[in-house]
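Chain A, query sequence.
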Amino acid sequence: AHTLLGPLDSKQGKFEEVAFLHRPSRTLMVVDSVVAISPTPPSLLEEAPAPLLFHSRDDMTQPVIDTAAARLKGWMRIVLFALYFRPGGLKIVEGADNVFGGALQSPERTNKELGWFGIYPFEWQPGWERSFEALQGGLFVAPGLQTIIFNRFPEQVLDWVETVAAWDFERVIPAHLDGPVKADGKVWREAFRFLEETGALGNLGMVGPRLLSEDMSLINEAEVGLVKDGTILPRAPLAKRR
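Chain A, predicted structure.
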């Protein structure tokens, strides 16, 4: 079985999604609609750890030491970049003098495996790990989809979600990040609860993945700008559902 969502037409772009049910294995397969985060790096990155080590530094002057802890830090930060682009615990180093001056002081400026001649224009602030830890616990909708796309079409999205929720499955395989994830229709439906909440964030309460307000500033700014310049539609209200 399969069912399509969309196309969701938001003025300057369209979004489509598809869900497939493999009945014999009771497995739901989707593309972008939900994700889950592995607490540890995938094996592929462990075999080629340069990206993990590149992002393991707190700033440009810190040397890279290949340890399990460093690889884990790199993985956590890659996830936060992928989901938020500019998570709350990240400070961007601005100004050519600061960027290139810092690179000259970097002990990794001659490390060809890392590349970029020591340039690492980020400084991670204490407590940044909280953002990664909040995303643990199962399925959720990525912050960009929550804030830029799905909340323009809550009725259409929830109709599709509830069609899928009625299927008989026990695991979900998203196209990105972790999988398979143990989840049935009830867990799947809960991942979209943000569309029915009145607050600014689509959080699932005290249990399960959460989006922290300090991580959402760039995406929220993008939403305001995209609505203002006419690229996307304003948010649509959700009618009371049966």
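DSSP finds nine helices and seven strands in the chain. The radius of gyration is 20 Å.
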